[in-house]
Design goal:
29 helices
């Protein structure tokens, strides 16, 4: 009994200490001090969650307290956001309702809490008409839709959601591996890009690093150890670089703070993969950041260039590595002047120059914008936030027939890198990377897009589908005879363009369907029959259309021809034939979804038989189960020894993907309840195809040396060779059959020892 009392006392002290830490953080902010409502929200949330614990065993209230601290300390938001963070799980996890929150805390906090409350699965679909699998798979998309809908009215919703996700990632360890992969996948696919898009650089970096740590613990550990090993050398290079600059800044009266910023583990790994290089070949492992205190006399932009001038007096700049984000801020409000210079130790060093205000916006993004807005400040970059919210509205106005397509739409339109394109008059339009001339036309105006027949990009005539680049000047060409075409949907990328095109096409189809309905009615009158549902169903089955509107449209477009003489023959079909034909058509329509969308090839109408696999345990990939209980995915071709996850298919078999596979990332986001933690048992009987890339100096006999090592020394079966040489250098690929990762690593190490070979890598 005493032990329980002591434990309870310890928990209460832990909770009280966390709350006092939150109040201390809030007291250090510039916000109006509203302690009463924060205290009220804490007491209410603490009582609502009393008795419930997290997976780690600590009281549940510690999670809302931690989220509120992130909101206050790391985002700099005020009392409304702190209260909403404290209350964000009350409606979802207890018996209290949004109305209870509204009555106690007002409309604004209730609206934010409602936006943060997840939608229960199945609530947004017609359970009679939609297969179970569709209900399950739509949950994440609908939750994101709800978040964005509320966010378009109050951006604090998504800021608190990101704080919630950040704390969940920080405390992910107690969960089962399969659950970790699901949450880490969602974070990497949706939340880290969202943080980046909102300018929350520090949070985005931590989310990426934590996701990477849980998905690739071994690689994370290796890179971390290498960073630790090089830290003294980095400190030495930085000190040598910064010393003369700091001295000069003091002479000129420039008040600034010079810091080194080491790249994150995930950022280094991404660069290693993108450039196909080793850790030792990454030259910009750290960057130098100069944050200056602006004076009242000189404009901040000019002060950035003054500091640039000081730096380039000491060090030579790289001409292709200057980025002026001061004159034209990024869409997330980021402002800074970047340059890369050759340091005194012969290394390229990136330097970022920012004012204190620029630095706060760079670290806290739109959260800083919101803080300024709460204080009544009018800042230039606020218009960028308004433009992004307008884009969110475009996405929300374009509901996809498949909720999962909505996640791709978000990814494409809200997270994608952006390009800046000019009108003939020099106005700038911001578009997602990959946008076409037709997207630009719709960005100007709906009527311009509808009438677009082509464009001139940099005075050169291009088709509608031409992809634009940053800096292009675009003149749209129109014609009154033009109207939206179905094929346009295949190359436009913005939600605005797709929505407007689909609206016109639906309207046109509706008009045509009415015309077809009248033609069919005339035919009924000719043969002396009355149009009724039974007769119409027989016609739908005969011609293979699922809906009557589709049949009407086909008649109007002359895709089907119904003559009076064969009309009676159609109606004489026996009811049995009619039922069989109708059923066949119905199933073919359902099945066509997965054929049309290669990303959803694993999605069928029947739910997976998840009961056969215990998802609470790590599934061991035994050799005898290969091809029977599991298969390897063709998208990433994992081999024994790779870090992998399993996806339970509709037949109950596991489809094995590399954890870093882009398709696996989508699967973790969309079908988290089908993800299984997997480990290889080792394969020696079965072989996997794998490809290695070899580069070196083109010398006589080099190919012979390579094939000798592969075929004779290591007894590896070669499947295909492809080599070429240019300017005394050669490069090529070799496809081999191997048993596991150890085999391919042994092969790479052996080939690297051959004279004149400069690099050997596995092609991922």
């Amino acid at each position: 009994m005493d032990e329980v009392i002591t434990d309870t006392f310890g928990e209460e002290k832990m909770i009280q200490d966390a709350f006092e830490e939150l109040l201390k953080s809030y007291a250090q902010s510039n916000h109006r001090q509203k302690y009463d409502i924060i205290n009220k929200a804490f007491l209410f949330a603490n009582q609502a969650h009393k008795g419930t614990k997290r997976e780690s065993g600590i009281p549940y209230i510690m999670h809302p307290l931690a989220v509120a601290l992130i909101v206050s300390e790391e985002m700099g938001l005020g009392s409304t956001s702190i209260c909403s963070a404290l209350l964000h799980d009350v409606v979802e996890d207890t018996d209290y309702t949004v109305e209870d929150i509204r009555n106690l805390f007002g409309d604004k906090i209730a609206q934010i809490v409602d936006g943060l409350t997840k939608i229960p699965e199945g609530i947004f679909v017609d359970t009679a008409s939609v297969p179970n699998d569709n209900k399950r798979k739509s949950s994440q998309a609908e939750n994101m839709r709800k978040l964005l809908l509320t966010m378009s009215n109050d951006i604090r919703v998504i800021l608190i959601k990101l704080a919630d996700r950040l704390h969940n990632m920080r405390t992910l360890s107690p969960l089962l591996p399969a659950k970790q992969y699901k949450i880490a996948g969602e974070t990497m696919f949706l939340y880290a890009p969202m943080a980046h898009r909102l300018g929350l650089f520090a949070i985005k970096t931590e989310l990426e690093d934590l996701s990477f740590k849980f998905e690739h613990p071994d690689i994370y550990k290796q890179i971390s150890q290498k960073l630790d090993a090089t830290s003294k050398n980095i400190d030495k290079i930085y000190a040598h670089f910064a010393e003369p600059l700091d001295k000069k800044f003091k002479e000129l009266g420039i008040i600034c703070d010079t810091q080194k910023r080491v790249k994150s583990v995930y950022s280094i790994w991404s660069k290693m993969n993108a450039k196909k290089v080793n850790f030792e070949d990454i030259y910009d492992v750290f960057a130098v950041r100069i944050v200056f205190k602006p004076n009242q006399i000189t404009d901040e932009k000019k002060q950035c260039w003054d500091i640039y001038s000081v730096i380039t007096d000491f060090y030579r700049p790289h001409p292709d590595r200057i980025r002026d984000w001061v004159s034209r801020p990024k869409a997330n409000g980021y402002q800074a002047l970047h340059l890369t210079v050759m340091g005194p130790d012969g290394q390229w060093i990136e330097v970022q120059i920012r004012s204190e205000k620029m630095n706060e916006i760079a670290e806290k993004g739109f959260a800083a914008h919101w803080k300024y807005k709460e204080h009544g400040d009018k800042i230039e970059e606020e218009t960028e936030l308004d433009r992004w919210i307008e884009r969110i509205q475009d996405v929300l106005e374009s509901p996809s027939p498949d909720a999962m397509d909505f996640l791709d739409t978000i990814k494409l339109n809200l997270y994608a890198s952006e390009i800046f394109v000019f009108t003939p008059r020099g106005e700038i339009k911001t578009l997602p990377q990959g946008a076409t001339a037709l997207d630009f036309a719709y960005e100007i105006h709906t009527n311009v897009g509808d009438r677009c027949i082509g464009a001139k990009v940099n005075h050169q005539l291009v088709p509608l589908s031409h992809k634009l680049n940053s800096g292009d000047q675009v003149e749209v060409l129109t014609s009154r005879a033009q109207s939206p075409q179905t094929e346009w949907l295949s190359f436009v990328t913005t939600s605005k363009a797709k929505t407007k095109i689909e609206l016109t096409l639906r309207k046109r189809k509706k008009e045509k369907a009415k015309e077809g309905e009248q033609l069919l009615e005339t035919l009924f009158q000719k043969v002396g029959m009355e149009n009724n549902p039974q007769v119409l169903n027989k016609m739908l089955a005969h011609f293979g259309y699922p809906k009557k509107e589709d049949l009407y449209y086909a008649i109007a477009e002359k895709q089907v021809e119904i003559l009076p003489e064969n009309f009676k023959k159609i109606l004489k079909e026996t009811s049995g034939n009619y039922i069989m034909r109708f059923m066949k058509q119905a199933f073919s329509v359902v099945g066509s979804a997965s054929k049309d969308n290669p990303d959803d090839k694993n999605t069928k109408t029947q739910p997976a038989e998840t009961g056969k696999i215990d998802q609470s345990k790590t599934y061991i990939l035994e050799e005898e189960g290969f091809q029977q209980n599991y298969t390897v995915a063709i998208c990433c071709k994992p081999i024994s020894g790779d870090e992998v996850i399993g996806y339970i298919g509709d037949d109950g078999k596991l489809e094995i993907h590399k954890r870093a596979c882009p398709t696996a990332l989508k699967l973790k986001t969309r079908y988290g309840d089908r993800i299984v933690s997997c480990e290889w048992a080792g394969h020696k009987a079965f072989s996997f195809p794998s490809t290695i890339e070899v580069k070196g100096i083109d010398k006589r006999g080099i190919l012979s040396s390579i094939t000798k090592v592969i075929a004779n020394d290591l007894l590896v079966n070669m499947r295909k060779l492809n080599f070429g040489s240019d300017g005394g250098m050669f490069e090529g690929t070799i496809e081999v059959s191997i048993h596991d990762v150890d085999d391919i690593n042994k092969l790479i190490n052996r080939l690297q020892k051959i004279k004149d070979i400069k690099s050997v890598k596995r092609v991922e």
